[in-house]
Amino acid sequence: MALLRFLFCGALLFAQVDRFAGTFSNDVFTLELRRSGAGYTGTIRTQGESMPVTAAAEGERLAGSFGSGAQSYRFEATRSAGGLVLLSDGNRYELREVGSKPGVGSESPGAGLVGDWQASDGVLSLRADGTATWGPNRYQYVVKGNQIIATGGPQGSQILPFQLNGDTLLVLVEGTAVKLTRRPAGQAPVAAAGGRGGVAADLIGKWCKVTNFNANNTGAYNSSACIVLNGNGTFVYGAETDSYNPNGGVTSQTSDSGTWTAAEGSITANSRLRGGTVTFRLERRNHPKTGDPMIVLDGDAYVTFYQKAPWR
Description:
By secondary structure, this protein is mostly beta strands. Helix content is 5%, strand content 60%.
């Protein structure tokens, strides 16, 4: 029941989390933003002057303008670990959120998070200086209430609701609760059972195979496929193929589900469709044109469905 309550509350948190509303400031100006309908309004104050701001979120960034009439300036902003990075008129400004602290200190609600946390596929290390590591990836993070705001790494900016209960940490990653256990200082990381790997956090999400479309005078052929890798170790697969010719068309669908684990260079699935275990060669690549991260399974490329930062 505790896990179900956490999942429910975490879903509400995701719905309520607003990465751009707040007050952000540096030595040059102070930016205040508040939610207004589907966008944001507010003010920017500098050298005693106050100008209105309007903006809208576009994925991971905020785009808008401040000023009025002939004195209107465009800007873009993205979330950083401690506030916002704002770009305007070729200039870059680092703004810290008023009231936030770089890292987790003794006055922070997340002070108990500092340390090493063992997951099924690795160790999450949270340091008091606001840095974190997961495998080879390094992050900056702050704790705001019961949310971890992390930047950097292959996932880009993330807001992760969490629940801390003694030496057990539940973190909501893309709607799935991931359980971690505090690792005592000096204890070596625990190997995954049987050496088969575990659920890799950077693979959690939805991945879709590039759609193939071929058409000529005799007909057309179209196919697509998507894999959803969940943080609880389950997966769902769906594929659809359409073919057409002058005499008609045929549509076929394939679905599968089961459990999955990942090790270095491979993904192993316990497949309902295949009635057993199958292992795929795994490569992490970036799309040659868009730069979007992909997972390549036995040579077949699946591109991230949701916005993610490129693999490093």
